[in-house]
Design a protein that fits this description.
alpha+beta; 17 helices; 12 strands
Amino acid sequence: MSHFWNAWKKRKESLRDQSLQQHASKSMESVDDVTITTDLDENIALIEHQLGKSDDLVVRRFQVKTGQDAALVFLDGMVDCDVISQYIIQNLTSSSITYDKSATNELETTTGLRQIIRNILSGNTVLMIEGETEAYLNNTRGWARRGVEEPQTESVVRGPRDGFCETLMVNASLVRFRLKDPNLRVRHMIVGQRTQTDIFVLYIEGLAHPPIVEEIISRLEKLNLDAVLESGYIEQMIQDNRYSPFPQIQNTERPDKVVANLLEGKVGILVDGTPFALIAPSVFSQFYQSPEDYYERFYIASLIRFIRIISISIALLLPSLYIAFSSFHPEMIPSRLVIAMAAGRSTVPFPSLVEALIMEMAIEILREASVRLPGPIGPTIGIVGALVVGEAAVSAGLVSPIMVIIVAVTTIGSFASPSYSAAIAIRMLRFPVMLLAGMFGLYGIMLFIILILVHLSSLKSFGVPYMSPLSPLNLQGMKDLFLRVPYHLMTKRPTMFRVHDKIRLKEEDDQS
């Protein structure tokens, strides 16, 4: 009799397993339409089938005090186990507590399998109870994460020291900490079909131009990417001109910079898993401005900004000017300097163009190598390598001493840009302008400048002209372009972003 009973039980379990596999296979085809049932074992089998019975998938079974079987499902390493033990299991199994929904500490309930899987993969814990048609989603995220630290790419002498980290909610709180405006809107979206990356779109209602906000959200919704691992994926996909070397969306690690741009009617994009936020729309002048410009007095900030603009110009044009003057226009150089240059180049077997290309390529290789080396070694290799290579090249007669000076000044000038993306564009454009200078002299440089200005004037960032407020001319925006005027004169926000509330600072007469 017992043999017959065991055979019948195995047959029943086999049929049930086949039913679960069929149900799970069907759910793989259309997970959106699958809902959980009152059968706890069947629900667990569906989840395990979706997640492939991964070794880090934990299914903790227990009984609540009402006598019902229950199970907690979560991913090991993604949750805070103390929260699960003390605030969920203990509350549900304690004899002094009668089970009800309030004891589960859930954030929400759901019946959909897709939402359950999504929450498990996000670090939440799913509670399912035998006989219940709803699953309870508990916020138990507790994976290892980096704390708030000083930004590495945008350091300032005076200003806040906290920067974004890789946790989306922490980054949003850093913005909220500085911007206590009830009109701040945070729009949650999910991008990346496989990574399911969370992003926040931030803007101030009443400041940001609604068509710009709608256009940004529309482009984000149309993204059909398999994965979004960093905000750079989004930046490249939603910018207006994907082939331009100039960045049309600004990235930053600084919360204060995001808040300052939100107050000008722009939109911020925070991406989970990266400390780099995006700011759109962006114009060219933003990429040589620093938050520190607004923390110092206006004449100090104006001087520093002017030096920064000169440094960027030197980084772009100095080698090509040397090539043009030495090869095509020596009569424009003072006589004594021409004699010194000729003496230095007497042993150099290459024309000035080849000489400049060799040195620039060597510097770029050293710079890239210093970035990839370990922290304490990288800067040392960069400095020592540049000195050794430069001195050895001059001693061997491969380059002239003045070329070493020009390349050194050019490299230092490129570091003056507060934006790494803009600095890379300048470094890249330096080579074509050197080639034009080697072929046509000053005429080639002027042709290059004209082409770049035409290209910049044709660019737009979400409908905003890239060269604003210079082209088209906007007098209000000119107050914060090359120089920064005192705050009491910056009473209105730049109109190029079509802000609704144009008043930034009330006049003294109005205040009185």
